[in-house]
Amino acid sequence: MKILTLIAACALTLGLSAETIKFDLTKIKDKKATLEGDVLTYKGGGILQLPSIKFDPAAKYTLSMEVKKADNAKTARFYAGFFCHDNKNRRMGYFNVDAVVKSDTVLTAAVKAGDKIIKIKDGSAWKKFGFVAFNTKADYSDLPNYAAFGSVNNVKKEGNDWVITLSRPIPKAYPAGTAVREQMPGGYLYTYYDIPAKTWKKYTRTISGVFSPGKGRPDKYFWPGTATIQPMVLVNWSSADPETKTQFRNITLTIEK
């Protein structure tokens, strides 16, 4: 039996077809999750992961759920959204896609494995805390770029070069002339986040389109190169208390085309 149940399909609204998937919470395999009736209680910090869905860049996706704190228990902030995976099932991170506009340049000197300092032609758009992405393309067709390493501790102009100092060594060598850019770190694709209230509250948000640098923030769109999306919730996130408890019910995903 599949972990999700289709509750509506091909409902025509203004010429669009829509299907709504209600996730079967009885199939959740997580030691921190317990189910009583239609209510799933999640204890402690962790990630509630739901089944992956094939991604259609032309579709709109609405993730909806009801959330509340468990009675007589502590709770902490939750983050609901999606993991984006490519066609090799690699999970993307923010730093794989969030390119800093106008930061594209080239190495002016070769880089050896283990180096923590690189020299580039133009670092005027670079800033601290970013990642250095290698073998980039000016049209961003390299995104998601998995050859991104960080983070940037210092940006300084020295003569005709810009010197970038990293917090960690680069794991492989790159020759002079290699195209590079800066990409920024962050979380995942969150649709909403909150601290649960004592009573049930419904959360709903629609996401559509594919992110491109300069278009906006990566958490407003799906990410380039996405083949599948996986609804998820970071539950009781950043809480050190293992007794925190948050409850969920009626988790659905509506797909409109």
Structure commentary:
There is one protein chain. By secondary structure, the chain is mostly beta strands. The chain folds into 2 domains: 25-92 and 187-251, Jelly Rolls; 94-183, Beta Barrel (Elongation Factor Tu (Ef-tu), domain 3). 0% of the residues lie in helices and 45% in strands. It is elongated, with a radius of gyration of 21 Å.
Helix and strand topology:
Layout: E1 4-13, E2 16-23, E3 33-36, E4 39-43, E5 46-49, E6 53-54, E7 60-69, E8 78-85, E9 105-106, E10 117-120, E11 131-134, E12 148-150, E13 152-158, E14 161-166, E15 179-183, E16 189-194, E17 201-208, E18 228-235, E19 245-256
Antiparallel strand pairs: 1-2, 2-19, 3-4, 4-19, 5-18, 6-18, 7-17, 7-19, 8-16, 8-18, 9-15, 10-14, 11-12, 11-15, 13-14
Summarize it.
This protein has no helices and 19 strands. It has 257 residues and is an all-beta fold. It starts with a strand and ends with a strand.
| Corresponding CATH architecture of the largest domain | Sandwich
Task: Give the helix/strand class.
Answer: mainly beta
The percent range for strand residues is over 45%
How far is it from the N-terminal to the C-terminal residue, by CA? 26 Å
Give average pLDDT, whole number.
93
Q: Indicate the low-confidence ranges by residue numbers.
A: 6-14
Overall tally of structural domains:
2
**Fourth CATH level, the homologous superfamily of the largest domain:** Galactose-binding domain-like
Q: What is the C-level CATH assignment of the largest domain?
A: Mainly Beta
Instruction: Outline the biggest β-sheet.
Output: 7 strands, antiparallel
Here the CATH topology of the largest domain equals: Jelly Rolls
Write the H/E string, N to C: EEEEEEEEEEEEEEEEEEE
By DSSP, the count of extended strands is 19
Helix content: under 10%
Summed up, the helix count is: 0
Overall form: elongated
